[in-house]
Design a protein that fits this description.
Number of domains: 3
Distance between the termini: 47 Å
CATH topology of the largest domain: D-Maltodextrin-Binding Protein, domain 2
Helix content: 25-40%
Number of helices: 10
Radius of gyration: 20 Å
Strand content: 15-25%
CATH superfamily of the largest domain: Periplasmic binding protein-like II
Shape: globular
CATH architecture of the largest domain: 3-Layer(aba) Sandwich
Largest sheet: 5 strands, mixed
Bound molecules: the ligand NCc1[nH]cc(CCC(=O)O)c1CC(=O)O
C-alpha cells in the first residue's frame, strides 16, 4: 500500500443474473461489502441474460457461457453497475478489453456431486441408466469411467435441473457441490465425487468479481475480498484452458491446490464420448500470479505434447 489515503466507496451497485444461485452469490458479496463499508449504499441490480433465456440449446451451440456475463458487462459499461459477481467457472478465459477481475473469493467445495433419488452412487447404476448433464467435461470423464451408462442433456438453472430430476427423467444428475451448498440444498447430494475421479471445471466453486479496468478505485475497495490462495489456484487453472485456446465449454477439467507455497495442478482434456483423454500433472512453488500462470501454461504444453491440438480439432463440431 502507498501512503495515499483510501476513500471508502459511497455507493456500489452489483450486477447479477437473477437465478437463485446468482442472487445468493451477489447477496454474499453485498453483505461482505456492507460490513466492510458500513456507510456505503450497496445495492443489487438483477438482470436476465441471453444464457438464461435460451434453454433449449446446449451452451456449446449458443456460443458458450460468455452469454451469462455479456449483459452484466454492458451494464457496467453504461454506468448502471460498478461490479458484477460471477461464478468464475462461467467467466470466459479472456475478458473483453476494458474489463478486469478485481477479486476472487475463497473457494467453496470444488467437487462435483451426484444427486439421485434412488441411487447412492454412480457405481451402483445399472447398465443403460441415464445420467443428466450438459457439461462436456462431466460427460467425457463419466463415459470414460462408466461406459455402460447413458448421458442425456440437462440444462437450466439449479432449480430447473433438480425439478427435471424429480420428474423422473434421469437416474441421477451431476452438479457442482458448491452451488447446492450455497442454496442450502446440500442434503440432496448423495455422494461427492473425489477430484481424483472427476476433475472439476476451471474455477469451479470460486466467485469472481469483475469491474471495468478503468476503475482503480474499485480494485482497491474490493481487494479485501480477494482470497490469495484461491486467486492463485484459479489463475493456474485458467491458464491451462487459455493455453489450449479453450473456452468454458471445452471438456477440460483442471484443479489446483496449494499447500503452503507448493502448488499441485492436475488437468484432463477428453472427448465427450469418453474414448480418449489426456492427463497432465505438475507442481511448482507459487507465491505470486506470474508463477501460477507459468505452471498453468506448462500443464497446457504437457497436454499439447500429447496431442491436445488434434483432440481439440476433433471437437470442432461442438
Ligand atoms: N454452469 C452453471 C454453474 N455455474 C456455477 C455453478 C456452481 C457453482 C460454482 O461452480 O461456483 C453452476 C452449476 C453447476 O455446475 O452445477
Amino acid at each position: 500500500m502507498t501512503s495515499t489515503t483510501f476513500t471508502p466507496p459511497q455507493s456500489l451497485v452489483i450486477a447479477t443474473r437473477e437465478s437463485r444461485l446468482a442472487l445468493w452469490q451477489a447477496e454474499h458479496v453485498r453483505d461482505w461489502l456492507r460490513s466492510l463499508y458500513p456507510q456505503c449504499d450497496v445495492r443489487i441490480f438483477g438482470m436476465t441474460t441471453q444464457g438464461d433465456q435460451i434453454l433449449d440449446k446446449s451452451l456449446a451451440k449458443i456460443g458458450g457461457k460468455g452469454l451469462f456475463v455479456k449483459e452484466l458487462e454492458i451494464a457496467m459499461e453504461q454506468g448502471h453497475a460498478d461490479l458484477a459477481v460471477h461464478s468464475l467457472k462461467d467467466v470466459p478465459m479472456e475478458l473483453p478489453p476494458g474489463f478486469a477481475l478485481a477479486a476472487v473469493m475463497e473457494r467453496e467445495d470444488p467437487r462435483d456431486a451426484w444427486v439421485s433419488p434412488r441411487h447412492a452412487s454412480l457405481d451402483e447404476l445399472p447398465h443403460g441408466a441415464v445420467v443428466g448433464t450438459s457439461s462436456l467435461r462431466r460427460e467425457s470423464q463419466l463415459r470414460a469411467r462408466y461406459p455402460h451408462l447413458r448421458v442425456q442433456a440437462l440444462r437450466g438453472n439449479l432449480d430447473t435441473r433438480l425439478r427435471k430430476l424429480d420428474e423422473g427423467q434421469y437416474a441421477g444428475i451431476l452438479l457442482a457441490a458448491a452451488g447446492l451448498k450455497r442454496l442450502g440444498l446440500g442434503e440432496r447430494v448423495r455422494a461427492v465425487i473425489s477430484t481424483g475421479d472427476m476433475l472439476p471445471a476451471v474455477g469451479q466453486a470460486a466467485l469472481g468479481i469483475e469491474i471495468r479496468a478503468d476503475r482503480p478505485d474499485l480494485l482497491q475497495a474490493l481487494s479485501p475480498l480477494n482470497h490469495l490462495p484461491t486467486a492463485l489456484c484459479v489463475q493456474a487453472e485458467r491458464a491451462v484452458s487459455r493455453g489450449l485456446g479453450g473456452s468454458c465449454t471445452t471438456p477440460i477439467g483442471a484443479y489446483a491446490t496449494l499447500e503452503g507455497d507448493d502448488m499441485l495442478l492436475r488437468a484432463v482434456l477428453g472427448l465427450p464420448d469418453g474414448s480418449r483423454a489426456l492427463h497432465a500433472t505438475s507442481r511448482a512453488r507459487v507465491i505470486e500470479p506470474s508463477q501460477a500462470e507459468a505452471l498453468g501454461l506448462q500443464v497446457a504444453q504437457q497436454l499439447r505434447d500429447q496431442g491436445a491440438d488434434a483432440l481439440l480439432a476433433q471437437l470442432g463440431g461442438h
